[in-house]
Design a protein that fits this description.
Length: 186
């Protein structure tokens, strides 16, 4: 009986006690080949040459299979930016436009770093900062425009963890500043 019990115990350990996959064991969505230049054009998204950093830093840094971005602001196609404080100077809708433009700015820097957006395995983590009046509480609604853009562009690979916080001031009076961590193919 002891021998049977020991063999059963070893078999459980070797095969795993639970055959159902654990959440943490799930891999990132598999990469599928997409012509991102065409896909972005179909979405009416134009990536520009990334703007120069405002100070002594770089826009992206790759460490192994992760790319970290610096905080980016809401660059308009004409080179200007959406500036002001949500709840004072800007409406929720203007804040959402700023978050979406910031996302496009981040995509421009990411493409410059990788050369091909098809190397994106998953958007992992996003920090969204919204310049807000003290009584403005809709930072998550502002950041939804950014998150929706990442899913629109990357599908399941665009889903990410996120923090959306209010700030009393941002560099150059930007309405939004966003940074992210991206897992990429080797």
């Amino acid at each position: 009986m002891k021998k049977y019990f020991l063999i059963s115990l070893i078999a459980l350990v070797l095969t795993g006690c639970n055959s159902a996959p654990n959440e943490r064991d799930k891999e990132a969505p598999k990469a599928e080949h997409i012509d991102f230049d065409k896909h972005l054009k179909d979405l009416n998204i134009v990536l520009a040459e990334p703007s120069a950093p405002l100070a002594s830093y770089v826009k992206t840094v790759r460490v192994g299979n992760l790319v970290y971005t610096a905080g980016h602001g809401p660059d308009k196609p004409d080179g200007s930016r959406i500036t002001g404080r949500l709840g004072d100077d800007l409406t929720l809708e203007q804040g959402q436009e700023a978050a979406r433009l910031t996302g496009i700015s981040l995509l421009s820097s990411l493409k410059a770093e990788l050369g091909d957006l098809n190397k994106v395995k998953r958007i992992v983590k996003v920090l969204g900062m919204v310049q807000s009046a003290p009584d403005f509480k809709d930072q998550p609604k502002v950041m939804n425009a950014f998150s929706d853009l990442m899913v629109e562009v990357f599908g399941e690979k665009g889903k990410h963890t996120r923090s959306a916080v209010g700030m009393s001031a941002l560099p150059a009076n930007w309405a939004t500043e966003i940074e992210m961590v991206i897992e990429v193919e080797d």
